[in-house]
Amino acid sequence: DDGGAWCFSCGYRVSGKYLPKPTETPLEDELDDSQWVDTLPSPNRLWLSSYGLDDSDLQRFKFDPMSGRHIYPIYRDRKLMFYEARSIRPGIPKKSLQFGEKQFAPVGLHKTQKVVLVEDIVSALKVGHHAQAVSLWGSNVLPEWFRALRGMRKEVLVWLDRDKYPQAIKIQRALEWIGVRSRVISTREDP
Predict the structure, then answer these.
(1) Which residue has the higher pLDDT, 28 or 155?
(2) Of 19, 34, 92, 131, which has the fewest CB atoms closer than 10 Å, so is most exposed?
(3) The pTM is what?
């Protein structure tokens, strides 16, 4: 036993020291957006809209006709750094696929005194109509993100899906430990 740990939910492994979570990152030259289109097909627009996203939110998405997935990209200095792809079509797995290095990318109302951590970008955009929100792209806070959250000087609300409540408590305690005022939001429905 090397003191490591394994998460059966997401496959995250720690071996005595921090190791980054394995991602489905393709080779550097494969992180390419040249096949994407700006217009989402109607079924994807309707699906995203059913979660409370408005037209300005939908404009952030692209569509990959090759994979049949809608894409949420994040660029830094016009370079594609990360994207999440999800399908809603029958016959294509619905699982969100992530490519590149996860990005700390706050969305929504930046002038509020609170920032809300959520699991996915759809929840972040939805919550962003009322507060500033950050998608964790899962249910873990990357170590360097704790520093960014502390630097924001805002209260942090951790609102994960109901099945991740124990993880939300762990995140809240870690935030409190580094001096960030925080609390957990727990609801029957996902954010």
Answers:
(1) 155
(2) 34
(3) 0.81
